[in-house]
C-alpha cells in the first residue's frame, strides 16, 4: 500500500514536469505562479514521507527519483531561459539608448587637468 502523501507527491511532480515543458512567453507569469504552487505543495508533503517504506513505496520512490532528476534539469533550463530573456531585454534597452543618443558615452580621455594653482 502506498501512502497518500507519496501519491500526491507523484501527481504534483507530474504536474511540475508538465509545467516546465511550457515555454510560451505570453503565459510565462502564470506558469511561474503554478510552478511555485507545486513546489510549495511538495514542500508540505515532504514532511509526511518518512521511512519505513513498503516494497511498493520503494518502487514508486525510485520512479520519483528519476522524475526528480528530470524536473531539476527542466527547472534549470526554464530559469536559464528567463535569465537570457532578461539579459536580452537589458541589452536592447542599452542599445536603444545608444541609438537615441550616440554621444552619451564619450570619455574624456587625454584631457589634462592642472591641479596646481
Describe the fold and architecture.
The structure is a single chain. The protein is mainly α. It has one domain (4-86). The chain has three helices and no strands. The chain has helices at 4-20, 28-46, 55-100. Helix 1 runs antiparallel to helix 2 (28-46). The longest helix has 46 residues, at 55-100. The mean pLDDT is 85.
The biggest beta sheet, please? none
Taking pLDDT < 50 over at least 5 consecutive residues as the criterion, the unreliable ranges are: none
Number of domains: 1
- Radius of gyration of CA atoms, rounded to a whole number: 25 Å
Q: N- to C-terminal separation?
A: 91 Å
- The helix fraction, in percent, is over 70%
Class derived from helix and strand content: mainly alpha
What key attributes describe this structure?
mainly alpha; elongated; 117 residues; 70% helix
Question: Could you outline the blueprint of secondary structure elements for this entry?
Answer:
Blueprint: H1 4-20, H2 28-46, H3 55-100
Describe the structure concisely.
The chain is mostly helical and 117 residues long.
